[in-house]
Each structure stands twice: as structure tokens, then as C-alpha cells.
User: Which sequence fits this backbone?
């Protein structure tokens, strides 16, 4: 089955690039392109795509409002937020609004392709002749794609770290391609030092990896990527 994708971005060049990324991915095709929120809503009704790549910043209706209106109208189309918006409020709104993925610009082709395949896998698991009853694996896959942190962090946390806060930090890390301790702390409401303790724990337990980003001067910044 070919997964039909509606690309929504106000920048015509960016929309073309994202469209090429979609066409480059086996099993996917571009169903249409929209450059405003109202156009996106209209094309979802007209084209009935399987997936919408939705920017947050649009010239009329914001992407989050588009998402809210789609759900309010009963549309079950899978939505992947593709945006430069990194604010934790926007990430939470997308999560609670039912977006399945949140990808921060700029990104590489492989980043988008990976998320498209994850969404397609969920859609396939919830469709077909036996779609009336989903098994636990299909349910876990669906909720894993819809929520950045669905798996509880291991109980063996270092002293002073809580599972609840660990889930929040891990969710923040999974919502973006990579994150610093300062950015994670800001997203969750922790100090940079505390957020770094959680992120380092995730690296030690295989839930994340770290790389050093060297600037013009000073110590390199530690950047974390959730696995």
C-alpha cells in the first residue's frame, strides 16, 4: 500500500524539498501541497491523505490550530509536525493534540524517512482485515509513535532522580533530533545540572547517546540524542 502524504509549509522551496524527501522514500507519495492552514484543511477534506507533514508557523492558521481543527472535525489522519518551533509549549500542544511525530528543522532526509516509516508501520498495524481487534504489539507501536515517552524509565535510577521526572526529560529528548542539558532543563523546568544527570543516566543505560559540539571558543557543548 502506498502512503499518501500532504505536505504543508508556507515556504515554497521548503515544501518542494520535503516533497522530494517523501517521494524518495519507498512506499510514499505526495498527495498534495498546501502553503496555508486553511488550504491544508481544505486539501485534507478533498484528498483524504494518510499523513500530513504540518508546519507550526503558517501565515493564517497556525499548524497547532490546524491540528486542533482536524481532530475537532473527526479527521483521523496521521500528523507529523515538521517545524523550527522548539518551545516546550508547542511540543506539549502537538502531543496532546494527537500528532504522531515532531521533527525539528533543519533535518536530514534520513530523519524524516525514519519517522514516516514509523507512522506507516503503525497505520499498517491498525488496518487490514483484522483491524477490528488490535493486538498488544500494534497498540504499543501506535502509542509509541504518538507519545515521545511511553516506556517507563528503569527503576534503578541514581539516588535523587525520580522516574516521573526521568520520563519528562526523556520525552523532551525524543521530541527533537538532539538536545542540550540546558534545553532539556528549560523544557521540563529543571536546572541544567539536574537535567544533565538524567541525560547522562540515559547514555549510561543505552537510551541516549552524546556527542560534543565544538564552538568558536570555550568548552565543547554536550548534545544528547535519544535512541
Assistant:
Amino acid at each position: 500500500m502506498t502512503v499518501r502524504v500532504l505536505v504543508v509549509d508556507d515556504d515554497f522551496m521548503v515544501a518542494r524539498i520535503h516533497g522530494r524527501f517523501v517521494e524518495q522514500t519507498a512506499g510514499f507519495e505526495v498527495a498534495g501541497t498546501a502553503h496555508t492552514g486553511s488550504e491544508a484543511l481544505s486539501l485534507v477534506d478533498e484528498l483524504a491523505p494518510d499523513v500530513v507533514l504540518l508546519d507550526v508557523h503558517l501565515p493564517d492558521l497556525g499548524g497547532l490550530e490546524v491540528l486542533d481543527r482536524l481532530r475537532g472535525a473527526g479527521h483521523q489522519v496521521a500528523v507529523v509536525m515538521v517545524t523550527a518551533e522548539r518551545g516546550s509549549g508547542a511540543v506539549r500542544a502537538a502531543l496532546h493534540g494527537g500528532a504522531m511525530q515532531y521533527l525539528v528543522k533543519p533535518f536530514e532526509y534520513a530523519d524524516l524517512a525514519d519517522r514516516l516509516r514509523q507512522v506507516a508501520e503503525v497505520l499498517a498495524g491498525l488496518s487490514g482485515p483484522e483491524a477490528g481487534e488490535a493486538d498488544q504489539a500494534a497498540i504499543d507501536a501506535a502509542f509509541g509513535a504518538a507519545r515521545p515517552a511511553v516506556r517507563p524509565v528503569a527503576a534503578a535510577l541514581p539516588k535523587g532522580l525520580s522516574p516521573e521526572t526521568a520520563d519528562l526529560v526523556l520525552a523532551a529528548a525524543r521530541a527533537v533530533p538532539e538536545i542540550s542539558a540546558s534545553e532539556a532543563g528549560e523544557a521540563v523546568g529543571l536546572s541544567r545540572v539536574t537535567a544533565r544527570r538524567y541525560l547522562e543516566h540515559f547514555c549510561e543505560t543505552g537510551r541516549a547517546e552524546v556527542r560534543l559540539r565544538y564552538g568558536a571558543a570555550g568548552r565543547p557543548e554536550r548534545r544528547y540524542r535519544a535512541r
Remarks:
- Strands lie at 3-8, 28-34, 51-54, 78-83, 101-104, 179-180, 208-213, 221-226.
- DSSP finds nine helices and eight strands in the chain.
